[in-house]
Write a structure and sequence with these properties.
The protein contains four helices and 22 strands. The chain is of the alpha+beta class. The strands form four sheets. Strands 1-22-18-17-21-2 form a six-stranded mixed sheet. A six-stranded antiparallel beta barrel has the order 4-11-14-13-12-15. A four-stranded antiparallel sheet has the order 3-16-20-19, with no helix packed on it. A hairpin with a 3-residue loop joins β19 and β20.
């Protein structure tokens, strides 16, 4: 009899292979789906800014905003400190060079002037007294020299007469020797008085010269003190407009304190700030233009300030021809600053994507406009409207120019 064989229940060895193969396929599918979710980002196309790459003329300029300022500003610092006693001119007024704006009071300075005047008077009295003393000594010395000269002449004549008589043996030897000694004594006395008179004259000359020099110095010092007194009147250093005045009656002003400024209105300049991205290309004598009421006014870049603050640096521009008739200090103008010659180039419209990528890559939209793929590019110059594309893009291609911050690390953008 045949024996009925019952099927064995449970897993057989061949089933393990099927299970392993299924798990492997499931894992691969999971990895594929997970990888796609990491590198892709889904968004609505209407929420993005998409622009086309075009071939055209690239104008190498930038548009900046500037404010009108006086061609120069002269600051007023207090030469002398003091209390404000009178305020003659208010802010905004037109002034002429030398006009008194403020009057100050300084009691210490007044005391210094009195002390200097007193010292000068004493010095003058000392000089006058010294001159009188030297004059008296000079007169006395000349009188003594005259007497000594007369005595010498008489002694010499008496000696010569006695010498002749002695040779003729008409007088005694004692008389002859006495006259000779008297003559020699007169000669010595005369020489001593003469030397003393010459020394007194030299001393008088040097002493009076030194005293005169001291007196002149004191007079100059007094003159400088008088100038300091005049500096208590704060005057306008140039013709112009009193821009601001930081002083009120009764206020104490210290020496060297800035109290105001004069705006010279003979001409104007425009002060502007430029992004530090252009600092290597912006230099003196570049040309620019502003447009006002349909009229263009040419400018020249006069000065570039080297300091960079908050990512910007300052420049000054001046008009090279006519200027707007209604120009006023503080007005704002849009300026077109030419950085170089125009050239033919691939043009990429400007957008906020640059803040996320630094211009090193961009998302390029596919021909079916259902996705955008990240692509490395190289950007050259830029103006207010376009970037110059050097590598990575072709005319006619479309790119996403809006901000990329929400895309994360996605390599692919799926457009819905």
């Amino acid at each position: 009899m045949d024996i009925k064989i019952e099927k064995k229940k449970g897993l057989r060895p061949k089933h393990y292979g099927y299970i392993a193969l299924g798990l492997l396929l499931l894992f691969l599918g999971y990895q594929l789906v997970f990888a796609n979710s990491v590198s892709s980002f889904r968004t609505e196309k209407d929420k993005l800014s998409i622009a086309a790459i075009s071939q055209g003329k690239f104008d190498d300029y930038i548009t900046i905003n500037g404010n009108v300022a006086p061609i120069s500003t002269i600051y007023m610092d207090a030469y002398e400190g003091g209390r404000v006693s009178e305020k003659l001119i208010e802010e905004g007024a037109t002034v002429k060079k030398g006009d008194i704006i403020l009057k100050l009071e300084n009691m210490n300075l007044y005391e210094q002037i009195l002390a200097s005047e007193s010292n000068l008077a004493l010095k003058q009295n000392d000089l006058r007294s010294t001159k009188l003393t030297f004059d008296s000594r000079q007169v006395e010395g000349r009188r003594s020299l005259a007497t000594a000269s007369t005595d010498l002449q008489r002694s010499k004549r008496n000696f010569e007469q006695n010498e002749a008589l002695y040779q003729d043996e008409l007088i005694s030897k004692e008389v002859y020797l006495t006259s000779k000694e008297n003559y020699e004594l007169s000669q010595k006395q005369h020489d001593i008085i003469k030397m003393q008179t010459e020394n007194d004259d030299q001393l008088r000359t040097t002493s009076l010269t030194g005293l005169d020099a001291d007196l002149n110095r004191m007079q100059k010092t007094l003159g400088m003190v008088y100038q300091r007194l005049d500096h208590l009147n704060v005057r306008a250093p140039a013709d112009g407009q009193l821009g601001f005045l930081d002083a009120e009656i009764g206020q104490n002003i210290t020496q060297g304190q800035r109290i105001g400024q004069i705006n010279v209105l003979t001409d104007y300049k425009i002060e502007a700030s430029i992004d530090e991205h252009y600092i290597d290309r912006v230099q003196r004598d570049l040309v620019a233009v502003i447009e006002r009421n349909g009229t263009k006014y040419p400018l020249r870049l006069r000065k570039v300030y080297p300091e960079v603050r908050n990512g910007k640096f300052k420049v000054d521009l001046v008009f090279t021809a006519d200027k707007p008739e209604t120009i006023r200090t503080g007005q704002s103008y849009n300026i077109k600053l030419q950085l170089g010659e125009s050239s033919d180039a691939l043009l990429l419209p400007k957008g906020s994507f640059f803040q996320s990528t630094g211009g090193q890559w961009i998302f390029v939209v596919g021909t079916d406009e259902e996705e955008a793929i990240r692509r490395n590019i190289r950007i050259g110059k830029q103006n207010s409207r376009y970037y110059e594309v050097l590598e990575g893009l072709q005319a006619g291609e479309k790119v996403i120019t809006s901000n990329y911050d929400s895309f994360g690390e996605a390599e692919r953008i799926v457009l819905k």
